[in-house]
User: What shape does this take?
Amino acid sequence: MIRPLYDKAVEKCGGRPLTLLAAEKLIANVKKDDNVIILTGVGCAPFFLHGETDGPLGAASLARAVSLGLGAKPIFAVGDLDVEPVRVTAKAAGINMEEYEIMRQLRHTGAIVSFPFGDSEAKQAAKEIVEKYSPTAVLSVEALGPNRKGVIHGAMGLPFHSAKLHYIFDEARERGILTIGCIDCGNEIGSGTVVEEVRRVTRYGDVCQCPCKGGIACVTEADVTIPAACSNWGGYGIAAMLAVLVKNPDVLQDPDTERRMLEANTMAGSIDGISMRPIMVVDAMSDKTNQGLITMLHMLVENGLKEEKYMRET
Assistant: This one.
């Protein structure tokens, strides 16, 4: 399912490698001390009272990347139920978390904004957030968005009453602010870029199980959409590519930090979206699997930088 979505996203971006394109756009748009808004979290009652493990880790990885790599100020915008899991995950990733006014004075520090669930409240909050923080980029990792009938769905084709974070994307796109979305099933913010492919290849993509029958495919687009086996991995890919471009491997968390992030997230109550349990698993993939991916990404980053140095010296 992921490969067709990825191929379509590449096609929409003119054939460019997606993580490279995303990292290049971040470097071009985000300068030192700029605010970057990061959306994540699927918290909703009664199924995900503390969110899930896919989303917060990828968001925290991107926060670390834009902070260490670009000197930017990451601001998470999440629903009420996701605030604490996201906060502790970011801290485990090596980012201090403080109130906005304090954050602006400190290095390697982020802030978090609680986003309302109601539709009219969400629209107003989105406008206020974008106006107040004036971000130069808005990123999303596993934040759900509406289908063609305005209904947000879970992967199983049923309505999902999570925070309507897509209104922040809408505000950003209206103002020409860079938007990047990391997706997997196609019901996430950013999937609108490949919406027809989502409807074609994803279970319930075209027709959902709820009365709206509009499918789970999210219609909210992004400047760059990155489909991955789990949305966290899309965030990790961007962080790894940014590490290469700014020549700093520390931009991407190491395997030990990855484990600490997942442990912090689950201890705060987030659950694996497949087993529905607060265990060290993301979309049925174990902590060792995720650490293994980070190990491989670090090897690619470090080998790439070594090769570049070798080529300069010969």
